[in-house]
Structures
1.
Amino acid sequence: MTKRAFTNGLLLAMETIRTHKMRAFLTVLGVIIGTGTIIGVAAILSGFDASMTSVLRSFGPNSIIVFKFPVGFHVGNMTPEERTRKSLTYDNVLHLRERCPACEDVSAMLFINNNIVNAKYMGNDMYDVNLLGVEEGYSRGSGQVDIHLGRFFTDEESHRRMPVAVIGADIEKGLYANMDPIGKTITVGGHEFLVIGTMLRPAASFFGDTDNRILLPYGTMQKMYPNARDNAIVVTAVNGKLPAALDEVRAILRIDRRVPYDKPDTFALSTAEQMVSDFHQITAMTFLVMAVLSSIGLLVGGIGVMNIMLVSVTERTFEIGIRKAIGARRGDILVQFLIEAAALTGLGGIIGIIFGWVIALVTRLVFPSLPASVPAWAAVSGIAVSVAVGLFFGIWPANKAARLDPVVALRYE
């Protein structure tokens, strides 16, 4: 097929679409919805993936989070053995500091599980705050502490169990609006603490748009909440020694927790890259499911294209007879109708991409922290799939047109 023949076929197809605009729009409505949905979902998942990847990597490439079961995206899939594991202890933290040469910093984190904690100052209240007991090393190794006012507490204050606290940006704004919170008290779960520092909201955080953290010294948390037993350990490896640190931490904890040599670990080590990899698997599966569901729209659109092309063949039978009578070959007729079907669904795909871009734009406006954007691969794939749908569902009508007998076609009225 020559370039000129292709161009003429495309122009003829566009003229046919222009002549029957409403019919063409209704025909490819399924393609528009299917493509737009896939593009919109890809944009949202792409933004969500970028946001969560930024959060996970904010812990640093050398950080290891140690907990009794995997941190991140496995909580709903825990085995019975994982659910019954004993919590890590502060002795585990001390042993890691003593015996792990590849570990630059080891910090404990104590939190209250399944318990809602409220905070207040004078007449102001904040509900369901995120209360954590941490050590001074947490401010260096977690990537989540950026002091705004005041200072972070010291290990000495933790050992002496001083009633001091460092609060997050939204706690500062909600309880101490238009005043300096440093030196003032805050009541948390019935206990009173002195505010010695405030934090800026992290650029990337598990806490999302709200920063309702209240950090207490580890020893103070133990004293005020003696029933708190869930410990996590944040380990920062020496630069370039993350694999060695992982091996050393695993060996030390297996000895501490008396795990037999032929049994699996009774704890979990999570790194930023491993959590990112787990999250990518989840988003990939989610996109696959959404793509399959959205392809129903493409299927409906394809059937609509096939039906309308069959109608078009019937309407243009006489025209086909004339073209064959003056020398058009079967292949010319076949290509003409395939180009028309592909042009129809291709335009539907372009409109669908615009629809998906609008979804991404609205998502960014409603959720500013979610950087939804249409990936280039999604836009190219959207057009390619739309054209492919037209070609696939246009084969039967095009073949029917190409096989018409010119004598019979010329007699058709």
2.
Amino acid sequence: MRLSFSLLLFGLALLSHLFSSSLLAASSEWEFFEKFPVAKIRAKPKNIFDLKRNFSFLKRDHLEKIVREFVQASSPNRQVGGKGHKAAQEFIVQAIRKIDLQKKGTVYVDAFKPDIDFAKNHYQKEFEEKVAAFHKKDSPTYLTGLAFTQSIQNFLESQKERRGRHVIWEKKGALRPKEAVVVMAHYDTMSVDEKKHIKAVRANPGADDNGSGVALALSLIKIVAAMDIPVTMRFVFLDWEEWAGLGTKAYLEKYKKEDLRARTYINLEALGHDSRTQDKEERYGNMRAYISKPDQPYYQKEEILLDKMLEKGRKIAGYRLFKKVANAQVLEGDMGRWQDEVPAISFSQNWQDDPNVKRIHTPNDFPETLNFSTLHKCTKFIGGGLLAVLFDL
């Protein structure tokens, strides 16, 4: 009896210790940001070396921790309508508030009504043009495509009354506040089972798609908040983007005519996968930057901007990382598909030679599969390249 009671006391003590430890971990999860040497940031960099120094304060472990905390907070998935979806939005809002402790920018949640009918028609058209037009009705490809189309339309119909919520952080420009650079990263997920059916309760950590883009964007906010940027920078964490791009569609419909001229859109999508064994070139650092096809409006503006970013990003990161691909690759958050008059660039993994298709949208897209070294390099390359262009360095 005494032995059992002693074991009980020991168990309670152990639970108390573990509970206290978990609380401590939760309270200190943003300790890196709280101790971030803001005073050492060059608010007005005079050259590439100043900017490179600014990004030296962002560490690899910092991005890994954000991805892990984000995935844990939004478990089991971030599919619209689920508890993880709402938790993801709340996580991003709180993260921004802790990152931007001095409130250099403004964070707000922007609610919208997604165009469900548009998405349903989009998937039906894709099925008819890409599957039904080439495969017999009794073929496995046709049946799989039909099952997916019906499943996704049924799911969309069930969510018809649900609203979406973008999380937005904006800092006004010091010189030209009416000009804006918009950085986008979607936070929602789509969960599909082995039969290509949409599953609302299926686990999907979404670490690569798109916890990696969210972590990169949050990291850039810390740098941008400490700098006197010449133009306004707006970071948009998109909702409902997995579903035919309804998030960017809703964003553009609301903000296209605002009194703030978009200078460019930068999309951050699935930047956590980078392998050597699966890569056709058998090397790391084989990432991609996607722009419009040469015959599309504003292709030249996209190419000029991207070439500058690639040149300056290489100087800051110290290596080449992204290769330009002009094929109008459609990725979530790609504003270029909606607004031709503003150049848009999507930074992502190599979808031609090293895609992460076996893990994305499945329970296997977890943090342990990511290449955090490459994600860290992407942060310096994209953020440094963009800011170098804005400061004309």
3.
Amino acid sequence: MRHPSLLGLLLCTVAFTSTAFAATCDVDIPRQPRETFDKAAFHLWLPDDVPAGPVRGIAIVLDGINVDGRPQWQNFARDHQLALVACYFATEDLTDFFHYTKADRGSGRALLNALAALGQQSGHPEFEKVPLFVMGLSAGGEFSYNFACFCPERVAAFVSNKGGGFIIPPTDAVRAIPGLFIAGAKDQRYRAASRKFYEPNRKLGARWCLAIESKCGHNTANANDLALPFFAAVLASFDRPAAERTGIVLDLDQKKLIAPGIPPATASLTFWFPDQSLIAVWNTFLNNPH
């Protein structure tokens, strides 16, 4: 189920310069019986200095329902030696709430197959093993969480921007994945209520953070101002010993840092951060009047 489909349509182009080359590839993964997507298309972009060696990881970007989010995030990928894969899932049946956002119904398989195929064609076999940083808006935000549930061993961090309907209960393995939930204060109620899903899992020690974007509804808005530093902080933690990657936790009511892990019963609302520097970024994001 997780090997590249021989029927995938793959196009790979390479642009040469005097010192390096940049590669872009596109692959379509065919739908299998009973899977809940009609189209699954993926675009790979590699920074100029990456094709000569292995990548550190892959940034996965998804947009809203039936929106092609493939051309995005190139500067971030270049700065951190990442491959960038933008996804386009589409479905004709919008009456099925779960459609392709539920990764265990086919879209997760399609993404894994696409990564294997793109890695093979671009000369990067490590695509089948390197950590993934998954960011999605709306339906893409639901997929980013659901894919972490579907394949927690591959996901290094995920961001769900203006997602909702987090139906799949997380396991301990999923709660151990750094996650960021961004909600719009003026979004629809079921999306803006991310706290009802977030808070009980934080009480179980989930390495998750929540941000409510003021004056924003159902749009990207300034989410990347927080999402990109969040991913960068998780990447930076890879350079520290495993015992030092536990992050830090902010107790909002007491306005103090507490030990990572399961918070004390007296703490009502807490937030996990990969490092202390991200707290300032998070605070600025929350107080951005726009």
4.
Amino acid sequence: MKRVGVLGAGSWGTTLAILLTKKGIKTVLWARNHKFAKQIRENRQNTLYLPGFELPAALEITSDISKAVTDKEVILFVVPSHGLREVAKQVSVALNDLSKSPNLPYALVSASKGIENRTLLTMTEIMEEVLPSRLSGRVAALSGPSFAKEVAASIPTAITVAASEHKLRKGLQDLFTTETLRIYTSFDLVGVQLGGALKNVMAIASGISDGMGFGTNTRAALITRGLAEMSRLGMRLGANPMTFAGLAGLGDLVLTCTGDLSRNRQVGLKLGEGKCIDNILRKMSMVAEGVKTTNSVYAMADKYSVEMPIINQVYRVLYQGINPKDAVNELLTRPPRRELGDILA
């Protein structure tokens, strides 16, 4: 795989584009906004989302999506989850134009973390629904504990790529592996994507706790019980329960709930300090996926009759305006129960 199109010039998309280009892979980075694409192309740096990291001279930047996907062996989606469907539609149009795209991509990879609000679909499910049917079965997901800034700085990191086909998993593992980025493989597309999406909601909960001045005991309890909720929903949807003990589950959960670079934890911190969600989001330049994902997961818990008390309280804080103190009180006054038995409940 020597030709890759990276869709999305945020911090993670830019990092992955840099990583691939440095491996000698012909890479095109697509930015939706023409002026932004021109700016980072001329400056050779993404000062808005990944300041301090020079873009390799060989990395091509464009705002023309046809140029980004035509004749590519791998198309990597790294856009906000709520925008993935629209981008996938644009890709579908480009790929259906056989005069521009005679060769179909070998793999379509989602590095976006979220659940679509309206449909409750994962990112690869949206891709399967929107992209040309002849590409069915070529989708994959890349997820795990990875702050873009640290990966860009060559700090040792391990993440997971999930796909249904062994050959596809192995090819993508080889594609993304570097001296400092270790890739593990998984067949569990559902579990890997649920882990990547739900941990953002739990990070908001963890941030709320820290913002209210609670200690590490409370954070540890939230992480552990949050993992139980993630596992319950995952098992209900057919995921492998062991996925949630791995990089895409517990690994990403710990990182996002404790790391200062976590945007979702930062949202929670400000909520715990008494700030309004609308004002918090207005001042952010990057997307905190957990805010929209909370809405989706709350609906999924109801649809599939899965008990998710932490998710419920985060939803109430974000969308019903209840005081975080009241949310904490409701969690603490729930009826006592066994610890492990209810994971399967």
